Q: What sequence folds into this?
């Protein structure tokens, strides 16, 4: 039988990994076949029409069942693939509307897919990967996107995984991300309740001026005031938001309600939060990523219903895609957000373990299905800024997809009365206090310490909605074909100007209950759920009607006062904004002090400029955003 190559070959990382040899032919393996729909091209056209403000079909959406009936995998496709799998001596189980689980001995899987499966050692772990291209019969070419599970090196990570986050959970906090523990790395005795409140008079000056201690983490009331939500009467009532994650903390709801009680905020009502946990979903105390996601959405949209959807990777081979397809196939939300990413695409990054092309095709299909159902999707742009201080822009996927809203990050200054003072693109350098306490050890601004991801794709062409908004210097820096740039929009993300939230961590004493604490945090893991909450406000403003894929509308609203246009120099061309933080090392609990110089886009490999840029996109929402996005 004639065979043809399917998406996915020997992964790039295998070339440099320690080769251990051929996997045991008798070893039992499980892989996933990702299935194409009935009319992928028609799905893409439909998604474009319902998302275009100039189309007669604008915001005329399908139900989830209508979308699956028209564009999902057909019964004939399922039966055709299952019959071939069984004829190959393998077990076939339908694991979801878009995938089939295949189980059998390694030698039979190799024979069926025309490949060889070898083992490698990577970072001390033994992993598997196909040693040559994977194929299926030509008769199945239109039914199968590709195979996952042959390559067992995982690519899913949180937006802050380029920092020193705990690898066991994939979570991150401002503290973890900077190698510290505590409230954004600072002690409450020194941090400020608003930007600039406490001058650090005992520290050396920076750029000839006294620096101020970082905020302790802005409260929900401060965030609502700064972004013009206060006074609108919008609370997200009637809107539904989904948060995608690979794990959940059993204290998630309790922590959110404890924080609300401490700060005079509205707690979750009974039934307002739904946990969607598949069999085997990890439950880990101390998931600060999930706590921040939930409490950020609730901070700006306290009446919105929230579904916390956990994916395990058992269905598609990727936890993010599992959660995404679950939410989309069952139409569980009007808006969704993910602080977890599938990884990088070949050519978009220096990462040697990019996302499997099969996952990309399946994710693009799911995002387009979300668009035709009226679901707004948001993904963090990542917190890498300049990867490993190389000035290499970070283009994480799915944020780099032209079918989702990539959310970038800012440093935000909120005044004593909750007023918006300014924002700049979050890209910071840091210098440590010298041992004598009289100078900064590294010449200011110091080394790059963190910032929002962004840049230009080498994979996706420029979507129509970016054509008139993104300068050619950004979309086609090589002077060739314009490509997709990210992010699209932004909100506060800086670890040192982030939000305050509550989370419980395991007790240091065995047998004791988890210990609740409050901390400041950030990252685009914060900005994405904030934007999702803001979109929920727009759903309410639209009378409960869904917005769908919002990017074409976002770009159509530029120049209308809907966004703060963000640059590196809000206080003047020659003024530097700095913050001091008392840091604590995670291993030895040793304290040290750093000064952070904000707005250092030149050290990130990204661009900050008037108009669209690759750190903040179109900018951050003003008070006009919520009704404008709703079409009011």
A:
């Amino acid at each position: 039988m004639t065979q043809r190559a399917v998406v996915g070959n020997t992964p790039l990382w295998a070339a440099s990994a320690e080769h251990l040899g051929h996997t045991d032919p008798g070893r039992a393996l499980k892989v996933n076949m990702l299935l194409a729909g009935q009319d992928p091209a028609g799905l893409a056209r439909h998604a474009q029409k319902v998302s275009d403000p100039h189309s007669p079909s604008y915001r005329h959406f399908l139900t989830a069942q209508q979308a699956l009936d028209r564009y999902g995998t057909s019964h004939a496709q399922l039966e055709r693939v299952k019959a071939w799998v069984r004829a190959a001596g393998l077990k076939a189980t339908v694991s979801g509307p878009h995938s089939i689980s295949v189980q059998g001995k390694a030698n039979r899987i190799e024979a069926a897919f025309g490949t060889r499966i070898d083992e490698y050692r990577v970072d001390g772990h033994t992993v598997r990967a196909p040693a040559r291209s994977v194929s299926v019969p030509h008769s199945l070419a239109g039914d199968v996107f590709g195979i996952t599970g042959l390559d067992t090196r995982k690519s899913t990570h949180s937006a802050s995984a380029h920092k020193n986050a705990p690898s066991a959970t994939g979570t991150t906090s401002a503290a973890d991300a900077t190698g510290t523990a505590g409230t954004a790395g600072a002690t409450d005795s020194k941090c400020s309740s608003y930007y600039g409140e406490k001058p650090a008079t005992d520290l050396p000056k920076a750029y000839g001026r006294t620096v101020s201690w970082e905020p302790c983490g802005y409260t929900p009331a401060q965030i609502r005031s700064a972004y013009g939500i206060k006074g609108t009467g919008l609370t997200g009532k009637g809107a539904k938001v989904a948060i995608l994650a690979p794990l959940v903390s059993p204290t998630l709801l309790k922590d959110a309600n404890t924080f609300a009680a401490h700060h005079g905020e509205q707690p979750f009502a009974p039934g307002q939060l739904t946990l969607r946990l598949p069999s085997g979903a990890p439950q880990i105390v101390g998931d600060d990523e999930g706590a921040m996601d939930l409490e950020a959405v609730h901070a700006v949209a306290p009446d919105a219903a929230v579904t916390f959807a956990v994916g395990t990777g058992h269905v598609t081979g990727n936890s993010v895609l599992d959660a995404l397809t679950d939410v989309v196939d069952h139409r569980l939300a009007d808006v969704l957000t993910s602080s977890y990413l599938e990884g990088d695409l070949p050519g978009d990054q220096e990462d040697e373990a990019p996302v499997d092309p099969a996952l990309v095709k399946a994710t693009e299909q799911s995002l387009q299905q979300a668009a035709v159902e009226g679901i707004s999707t948001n993904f963090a742009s990542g917190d890498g800024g300049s990867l490993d201080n190389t000035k290499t822009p970070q283009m994480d996927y799915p944020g780099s997809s032209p079918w989702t809203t990539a959310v970038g990050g800012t440093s935000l200054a909120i005044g004593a009365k909750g007023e918006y003072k300014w924002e700049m693109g979050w890209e910071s350098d840091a210098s440590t206090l010298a041992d004598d306490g009289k100078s900064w050890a590294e010449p200011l601004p110091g080394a790059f310490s963190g910032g929002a991801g962004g840049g230009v794709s080498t994979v996706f062409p420029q979507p129509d909605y970016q054509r008139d908004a993104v300068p050619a210097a950004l979309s086609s820096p090589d002077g060739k074909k314009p490509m997709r740039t990210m992010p699209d929009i932004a909100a506060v993300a800086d670890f040192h100007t982030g939000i305050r939230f509550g989370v419980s961590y395991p007790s240091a004493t065995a047998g004791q209950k988890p210990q609740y604490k409050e901390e400041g945090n950030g990252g685009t893991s914060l900005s994405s759920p904030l934007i999702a909450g803001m979109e929920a406000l727009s759903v309410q403003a639209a009378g409960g009607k869904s917005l769908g894929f919002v990017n074409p509308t976002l770009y159509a609203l530029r120049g209308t006062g809907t966004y703060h246009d963000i640059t590196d120099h809000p206080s003047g061309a020659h003024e530097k904004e700095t913050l001091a933080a008392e840091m604590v090392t995670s291993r030895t609990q040793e304290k040290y002090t750093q000064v952070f110089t904000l707005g250092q886009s030149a050290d990130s490999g990204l661009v900050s400029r008037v108009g669209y840029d690759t750190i903040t996109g179109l900018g951050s929402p003003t008070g006009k955003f919520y009704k404008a996005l709703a079409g009011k």
